[in-house]
Amino acid sequence: MSVEIVRDLRGLHTSIARHRNGPLNTAASLAIVPTMGAIHKAHEKLIIEAKRNADIVLATIFVNPMQFGENEDFNKYPKSEEEDIKRLESKGCNIIYIPNVETIYPDGFDLSINVPKLSSILCGKKRPAHFEGVCTIVTKLLLQSGADYAVFGEKDYQQLLIIKRLVKNLDIPCQILPIETVRDENGLAISSRNQYLNTENRNIANNINKIIKNAANNYKNKDIESTINFVKNNFLDSGIKKIDYVEIRKGENLDVISNNDKSNARLFIAVYINDTRLIDNIKL
Ligand code: PAF
Fold first, then answer.
1. Threshold 0.85, pTM exceeds
2. For 254-269, how does the pLDDT look when each residue is reduced to its tens digit (9 = 90+)?
3. Ligand 1 within 6 A of 33 CB?
4. How many CB atoms within 10 Å of residue 29?
5. In three state form, how does the secondary structure of 259-274 look?
6. Residues assigned a catalytic role
7. How far is the CA of 220 from the centre of ligand 1 (A)?
8. How much is the pLDDT for 26?
9. What digits encode the pLDDT tens for the residues 48-77?
10. Contacts of 168 (CB under 8 A, 6+ apart)
């Protein structure tokens, strides 16, 4: 059966019911892969992981205005619906939900979901309303679909932990499945925003992974401060002019880390190359 495209809640519910009862049985499980479109290799990996775990795979395409700040790239966010549908279908996606803004945020919509502690650091500190927007849309999509599984990438590691906390604290019966960061042949973490980079920018961006990998390899022999300085200095030497943050935190809860207990550490970085903000992280 080819992929089914739905654009409103009624269509979504009808399609899920049909898939659950139709060619599959009533106990068929459903996995959701929320995306903002501009589908790339990393999204495809999310679909493959969804398919590995569930009978029915639902992808969503929605560029969520609520998670963009005033001066961010909402208006220029890449859109490629036709191509996205083809790619999602080729990986075995069963349903694609493409709601518009009015469907998600109808007149009178007045709600926001916040996971305040985890959202107040790293990207949340730099993009104040971002995670509230992410939490609100993800909660809506999980509740609208009733998915048993939801798949997210570790590239957005903070987002992943926030969503895990959200699901746990709201008792949403959905299991969150993480997948490792997908990288291109140069190690650059794959992101829709990489499309904004010209060749010169890309050459600079290709250094990010090398530098953080190097930091990870030498982490044992250095204190926290020296590792952070190593990364910052190497970023600057490689042509990155604007560093948003370089931090080391506990991988399981993003707590700050000290030299007395350097275990379970993860390095988190955000940089600007021209106007393009890139993030990455690595286990140390
Ligand atoms: O990671 C993303 O692409 C977005 O934050 C998400 C989870 C689809 C919510 O809009």
1. yes
2. 999 999 999 999 999 9
3. no
4. 14
5. CCECCCEEEEEEEEEC
6. 43
7. 34
8. 64
9. 999 999 999 999 999 999 999 999 999 999
10. none
